[in-house]
């Protein structure tokens, strides 16, 4: 299966996906990395691995629609089976999501449905949570709300700051995103009628 990864920043999740996908038995290949930021550190990391990269800077386009149309045209050329949003800090329009519904995955740094949106680690600490974590889910129109594919939890420790917690969560993000991509690429999990449906391993 062909996967395209969307990034906006350092691309550590993209790197963990690319590393996992390089294994011979992995059911997906990362065929391209797309960024909305020319300065995204992940672009150099992808290029160093020989992965095709393309950048679509929002300011270069007259509207959100034009920006998305350019990205959609690139996706039509690439024909991916799976699109992995990985630290991609831009909302996709409903039209974009409908075009690729059931094929778009995202990783969010909280145990959804808790703490959708931003500043998830600060909010978990402020709420007195004893665990935190991350979620890989299918992307739907609502933000951080689609059917859940995989989750991982970590402890929140006394004295944790958003930074120390973010670092602990990022470690398990790098473990569960490759797992989630494997499940979707091999067809074990798929999105059906708005739900994540698991098929018993064949
Ligand atoms: C991190 O906060 C991660 O939790 C979230 O996106 C941010 C950047 O990730 N998924 P990455 O290093 O660019 O993959």
Question: In words, what does this structure look like?
Answer:
This protein is α/β, with parallel strands linked by helices. Helices cover 35% and strands 25% of the residues. It contains 6 helices and 9 strands; from the N terminus they run βαβαβαβαβαββαββ. Strands 3-2-1-4-5-6-7 form a 7-stranded mixed sheet, with helices on both faces. Helix 2 links the parallel strand 2 and strand 3 (52-55). The radius of gyration is 16 Å and the shape is globular. 38% of the residues are buried.
Task: Note the main attributes of this structure.
single chain; 202 residues; alpha/beta; seven-stranded mixed beta sheet; two-stranded antiparallel ribbon; 35% helix; binds 5-O-phosphono-beta-D-ribofuranosylamine
- Overall mean pLDDT score? 96
Q: Please state the structural category.
A: alpha/beta
Order of helices and strands: EHEHEHEHEHEEHEE
Poorly predicted ranges (pLDDT <50, ≥5 residues)? none
Backbone shape:
globular
Bound molecules: 5-O-phosphono-beta-D-ribofuranosylamine
- Number-wise, the strands total 9
Largest sheet: 7 strands, mixed
Strands of the widest sheet, in order across it, are: 3-2-1-4-5-6-7
Q: How many helical stretches?
A: 6
Distance between the termini: 18 Å
Q: What's the gyration radius in Å?
A: 16 Å
Percent strand equals 15-25%
Give the fraction of residues assigned to helices.
25-40%
